[in-house]
Amino acid sequence: MTADWKNKKVAIYLRRSKGDTGDTESQLGRIEPLIRALEKAKKIKKVNRSIVGRQFKYTKAEGRFKSSRDLARSGDIFNEGDGESAFDSARERVVLGELLKRMRAGEYDAVLAETLDRYSRDPLDFATAALDDWRKNGKQFASLKESFYYGSPNPLDESIITTQLMWGGEAKKGESRKSRTALEKKIDIGYITKPKAELRGSGSKGAGRNYRTVWARMLTYGDTPEGRLKKPGEVGKSFGRDHTWASNFYEIFKQWNSYVYPDGETALDKWFDAVDAVNQYIAEYPMKRDGDSYKQKEVKQLIKSSNGFLAYPAGVNPSSKYPTAQNQFILFPNPTDFDIDELATQADPNMIQGWTVIREPLGERKLMKHQTQFRGAGGKGKRLL
Cα–Cα distance between 230 and 223 in angstroms, integer? Predict the structure, then answer.
């Protein structure tokens, strides 16, 4: 692929798809020997290994990805990051956009990626972002592991790429559909994400914590005029945690406490009962240590079946990764309404009498933040109230 190359100035493009294993740091490690070989052979100029875009690791002060800072960095390695789908529009990928901007300004002759599907699994979509660059402006988008590339002087290369990626992309879409179907099935057995509680034997710092005591302590401090917890640092310290932990749980507990079930009990009270029931089962399991009990098949099954309720006792509108549930409001069964031993031994809780995961159309329903699988800082993008 690079037989006719001589000292080209190149950028390196990294991207990991949703559902793929590994990460872009490992991706760079795999192709690093190939980059060094091209540098040694004088086919490409020395690559600046500094990262533009999503960093592999951020300091506590830096926090998460910030486009105004991370896209302005110097370097020749452009990292789109992990979980960036190849089926989302290439024009909407911010790191690719920055790379193309710099290429058009004359910084690069070509781009190298591990494989061509890192640019996109849909060549027609990628063309909407970069067609003029390789057809009119002489730029090239190459793979380090394949013998053809966008912008090749061989007119057959573009046809080969289109055929290969289109067929491969359809297969990948099929895998994605199967994965999404599996996610929907998990909801129907009560599973959605990790419980909010630190359960006995889990190995966390607060394993087996008495959350009723936490709530009672919070209530003694009360609200600020803005509705936040007063002196969260003091509350957090009294439970071996920090102010952020205390503030976050106070917001969660307040919202759950405002959701009242038809029987008059709040979601928070029901959650306390459910956490107590699961912790009691772990404590009474015939093992000497809670940590050993936690690893047993029956305990794992109980937590799995109780998971949805332990995470969202006031119901939830799931994230967009669920094709059907993202448009629904989900209410999970309360484990205390069933025989705990049966939940711990039945792999499919749908076989238990009375077990029902309620799915209702979301419609115009107004939800609190902790009734959603919100994304982003402060729930931006999913937070409704």
Answer: 6
pTM (predicted TM-score)? 0.56
Asked whether the beta carbons of 17 and 86 are under 8 A apart, the reply is yes
| CA 187 to the chain's CA centroid | 17
Q: In this predicted structure, what is the pLDDT of residue 21? A: 67
Are 217 and 127 within one domain?
no
Asked which of 17-21, 149-153, 344-348 is least confident by mean pLDDT, the reply is: 17-21
Sign of the alpha-carbon dihedral angle for 232, 233, 236, 237: negative
Which of 145, 179, 213 is the C-terminal boundary of a domain? 179
| CATH code assigned at 142 | 3.40.50.1390
Residues 186, 224: Cα–Cα separation, whole Å: 40
| Rg of the chain, C-alpha, whole Å | 26
Can you tell me the distance from the alpha carbon of 53 to that of 94, in angstroms, rounded to the nearest whole number? 8
| Residue 228 and residue 151 share a domain | no
Question: How long is the chain?
Answer: 385
β-bridge partners, 13:
78
